[in-house]
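Worked Example 4.2. Read the sequence first, then its structure tokens.
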Amino acid sequence: MKLDFEHINLYKCLIVIGSFVVYFIADGVSLSFGIFTRELIEHFNGNDREGLMFVTTGLLQAVPLFLSPLVCYLIEKYNCRIIAIIGSCLVALSFILTRFIVSNLISLNLVVGVMLSSGLAMIYIPAYLIISYYFDKKRALATGIAVSGSGLGLFVLSPVSEYLIAEYGWMDACFLFGAICSHTFISACLFRPLEKKNSEKENCQESPKRSLKEELGIIVSNKRFLLINFSYFVLSFVIIAPYNFLPSHIKHRRYHDPNSISISLIGLSTLIGQIAIGFVADFCKSYTWLIYSLSIIFSGFITCALPWLNNVYYVFVYSFLFGFATSVNYVLQSSLVIDSLGLANLTLAFGILQFVQGFSILLGSPLLGKLKDLTGDYDKSFFTSGLLMLISGFSLLIWPLLRNKNKNKSKYFI
């Protein structure tokens, strides 16, 4: 049975649901892991180990991105389903091992920073790419619905983390998170490879297969793709600053933020924004770059203004607006890559883009933390973050000036 790209059928809906569940669990768990950090710092002998602890959280964010080229290569060699199944097993096993074998920060970095992060990479990327393979006309909306699981996961699993740690302690909470993560196995099983049409098979047989070196040459010589990489590199340098610093900034200002409302609001508004922006982007396909640019520019302006917000309710408004605006970061990545290179080059190009973001995050998080240490508060860190977001957003405004040659317009690829 051949699947028609132009017709929304039941299995396409199942693909979206499967990806949504992956992002709900995996992103919800990883983004709320900071709640475990307080307990882990106390468990491993206090503030003198705090720097090493943030190595773990940095690895948790950066390693999945660093591994993206390798995971994308494995997806091309095998398929999304096999890689996602392996990843789901690694994630669940990592949390279970954290409960039983982690006795110091070195073992924590190995299990969480390496093993868990590797598993996350192997479920994140197939869950994201499978949407682009199955959808053409409604790709941005389908992607938005799928990755909105990330926002809902953060909104729901942050208080769940607080409750489990308070009720059972961080060790048993890790074990229970392993059980929760095991549900991604079911979603991974839904990611079946998409069969090519006969005409597509004939085209593949007629055209010579490009080597990896030739594919890389096509990708890295594309001006629009290079522009995307620059914009995302600058954005990724600071994008996680509110997630990492906002709760501490609120505490430093002596505001009252029960149950981490500020972070939960980012999660909720990200969910709303991913669906809304995905819906709009499908009706403005020629202006995907502009939607991304204006959203990031707006997030930059409000982040620059954050140090001057002198009321916790204003900070809550900031959290909501920031989450909504930066939701384009997830929703429009694949659309921007496809607009610049075509669907046939998506897998490898997406891996390169993710690697660039991982390198940027690994640099940005400790440098912004160092800026806080030098100045004594988070104001300069937020102001610097806002300026870099503005640079990222404004840079994409030159998109129309960069014309692509010989863009591969193939619609079908697996």
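Now turn to a second chain, presented in exactly the same format:
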Amino acid sequence: MKIVQIILFTAAVTFVHSRSRGKDYEKEKICQQYSMLGREKFKASGIVIYSQKFSTSTFEQVNAVLDAMVNLADKCCAEGADPNCYDDGATAMSEVSCMEDSPFPKHPGITKCCEEQSLERKLCLANLRVLSEEFPSLEEPTDDEVCKQFTADPKGYMERYLYELARRHGSVPAGLVLNATDNYSRMVASCCSSSQSKVCFLKERLQQKDSKLFLRLASHLCHNQVHFKSLSTGLAVRFGQMIPSASFEEVLPVADYLQQGLAKCCFNPNPECLIKEFIGLKTVLCTNSTLLAKYDKLEKCCTKPCLDVLPCVDSLDAQPPTQLAEIQEPDNEDLCKDASSVTIKKYFFEIGKRHHYLPIPILATVFGGFNKMVNSCCSAEDSNTCLNAKKPLMKKEIGTFISKANEICENYRKLDFTVYKERTLTHFQEKLPGATKDEINKKVEHQTEFASTCCFPKGPPLRCQKLVNTIGHTCEGDTCLLI
């Protein structure tokens, strides 16, 4: 898989350095990148950065701030420019950001930043970031429509495509998005001028299939790294569901390696960092691990080139667990030790691998609720009494939650969509005989949305955490430990 290395700029990095090195360093860095990349690539890099940082902003808002930045570089990086040109221009841009009717991207934190002055204000504005939204996949128009739009305005079409792609992949290295867009741009330019454009598009899309899958996988993993508090636990569970005979001690080194690589590299704009970690995974998983001997499909993945190992592993299905011993409940002393995170991770791992129909976005509710209970009790004056009282209640709620969620996901994955919806309708009609037709239909729609969105390993974590309430209360009272 060919990955193009692209040198990027980020305002945040530049401004952070300028705190200690001064405004001349800030200008020097921007001008160096402007000169190295050229005007068009400089703007394209900026579109990616700002579309990722402000994914809820419009294209017009992102374009406005980049036009201002490019104009600033045009003017102030020229030979013989006024020494104060860049600093004055950057200050003027920060003032525009603080205007009530600013054409630049919006953020709730802008008001607070605008109370600062000079460099502190610019630093504050540069460090703003909206938590990446979970947008639906980018749907391209037909080949004919692509060529029509591209031919009418090649630059405008590609800038908008770059914006749409970047905001959908807000947690990955910006260079991966630029690489994908460069590939797409070459395809469109070539195929729209070809006498056999449909054949050309088909051939090019097949060639780009692997790199697109790589971007989606990197985006999924980095998005989870941002939104799951303990991704290494989730990754350990994923391997446990894939290889139920594996022990916690066998999967943890692989899960920890991958999570630590994501934490280090996802927000590094240059993709080399993440690619290096993915390449290193082959050694950790295929050479230093005992997992291969327990799953022949995993062994086949390890015969592939380094960058293809992780996509291959990710494509493997969870396996129904064989006979497993009863889960050992963690004792109070272990839960409240400094190293309790390992105890809790192991407990979650054992729960997760016994329920292969439940992906991490759903099990995250169990992880979060149990962790909250442990933290609350372990900081109480009498932690032992607190845990003795709450652990049995939590165990019962976890059982209720998993039973309900497992039934929903197992049925959804086994049945045709139409059949699933019909059975869900019948279920609610029998369960709620006094409910109106509208009330029943609403429950059917909510449960179907939950199942179709969250019963898969790549379910969007933020959305699934909102939809999980569809499962209903996990206790008989009004105040439950889970939901």
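Notes for the reader: Confidence is low (pLDDT under 50) at residues 1-22. The CA atoms of residues 18 and 25 lie 6 Å apart.
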